[in-house]
Design goal:
The chain is of the alpha+beta class and about 425 residues long. It contains eight helices and 18 strands. α5 packs across α8.
Length: about 425
């Protein structure tokens, strides 16, 4: 009897998955442990592994389609064996519609009003055939999308060679190697006013839909309050520069964020009350500081985790952060690499933001927002001098962290960052 392979639940918040491409085709022999397809979840892109040996006798879901958890993807059986009829449809369920109250029993159906036409606003520009519209989302793999962004290539003008016309890495690299020549039009009409582009609606990706849901829940269900502190960044920047110069030949380059992650872990060790979660009926205090850090990707953000950060040196943290960040941007993180964090750091300082407030990432009780280093006059030893400061903002869950506890944590963090040699012992 053939074995059905269903869409697995690859993350705790996943409800549907997008089947990016098949790595095997119908009629192929497969062995247990072979990778059958690539699946995009709300967190990452993962490969689908088979635990059966046989022949891929049927594919139920096409490349590029969204498939609900538990819906069949393919069947593996003996050569020539009839494929079983799938018990459920492979397509993702449509979005729920508003409930309609039941009508009373009548002898004849009530007439249905014709739909009222909605006037369409004038469109400023007509998209090309390759451009995504509200009903046709651009089909492009996550890796191809990243390469296109890095190479500043407009992917909407590319023709995909992948399954179903999907744009893949090779298409982007070919476009980068052979750019289209600029052709001057015979006449150009310049519009001085009007929108930058035509109004459009783009369907949310799995990741963006999940982020929207979780942030709404976090902001409406968690009682946030915020604490802000200014840190003298001169000592940290000085010791970082000295270490990077001394270790340049070894290929070591520490970032400011590496020190902040280490300092956060040490501050959690000093003030363990912040390293906690609200369970619904009590407070769970964690025995280890698993510090996550926010990484911006095209569809939103994801938070890789440095496990047992309180036991690791700033050098070990730096070595771990870099590959985690790279895999996060490629959406290649494993579930164990982005779940289980007990505290989160969100750093927009590298983007020039002086200060901001972050939304708590449940089940964490707090999140640290890090601003950029600002050069300005400061008072040191009774004299006004030019200094460098950094603003840190702690968002706290008031069910777990009270004001005094949050202040103790920020005080410990400030002490560590202004005495960075303490982070090297």
């Amino acid at each position: 009897m053939a074995d059905l392979i269903d869409m697995p639940k690859l993350s705790d918040t996943m409800s549907v998955g997008t089947l990016i491409k098949w790595l095997k085709k119908e009629g192929d022999a497969v062995q247990a442990g072979d990778m059958l397809a690539e699946i995009e979840t709300d967190k990452a892109t993962m490969e689908l592994e088979t635990f059966f040996t046989g022949t891929l006798i049927k594919i139920y879901a096409e490349a590029g389609s969204e498939v609900a958890i538990g819906a069949p993807l393919c069947a593996i059986g003996k050569p020539g064996e009839a494929a079983p009829t799938p018990p459920v449809a492979s397509a993702a369920p449509p979005p729920p519609t508003a409930a309609v109250p039941a009508a009373p029993v009548v002898t004849a159906p009530a007439p249905v009003a014709a739909p009222v036409p909605v006037p369409t606003p004038p469109i400023a520009a007509v998209p090309s055939a390759a451009s995504p519209t509200s009903t046709d989302r651009l089909k492009i793999s996550p890796l191809a999308r990243k390469i296109a962004a890095d190479q500043k290539i407009d992917a909407t003008h590319l023709t995909g060679s992948g399954p179903g016309g999907r744009i893949v890495k090779a298409d982007v690299l070919a476009a980068a190697a052979n750019p289209l020549p600029a052709v001057a039009p015979k006449s150009v009409t310049v519009l001085r006013t009007g929108p930058i582009q035509a109004e459009r609606t783009v369907p949310a990706t799995n990741m963006r839909a999940t982020i929207a849901k979780r942030l709404l829940e976090a902001k409406t269900q968690i009682p946030h309050f915020y604490l802000e502190i200014e840190v003298d960044a001169d000592p940290l920047l000085t010791i970082r520069a000295q270490l990077n110069t001394a270790l340049e030949t070894a290929g070591v380059k520490l970032s400011v964020n590496d020190f902040i992650l280490k300092a956060s872990a040490e501050a959690l060790r000093r003030v363990p009350g912040v390293n906690a979660s609200w369970t619904g009926s009590g407070i769970q205090y964690h025995g280890a500081a698993h510090v996550s850090f926010a990484v911006a990707i095209e569809d939103g953000l994801i938070t890789p985790v440095i496990r047992d950060a309180h036991l690791k040196s700033v050098f070990a943290i730096s070595t771990e952060v870099k590959p985690l960040g790279q895999r996060a941007k490629q959406k290649k993180l494993k579930p164990e690499e982005f779940t289980g964090g007990t505290f989160c750091v969100s750093n927009l300082g590298m983007m020039g933001i002086p200060k901001f407030s972050a939304i708590i990432n449940p089940p964490n009780a707090a999140i640290l927002a890090v601003g950029t280093t600002v050069t300005k006059p400061v008072v040191k030893n009774g004299a006004i001098v030019i200094g460098q400061t950094m603003t840190l903002t702690l968002s706290c869950d008031h069910r777990v962290v009270d004001g005094a506890l949050g202040v103790q944590f920020l005080a410990a963090l400030k002490d560590l960052l202004e005495k960075p040699a303490l982070l090297l012992v």
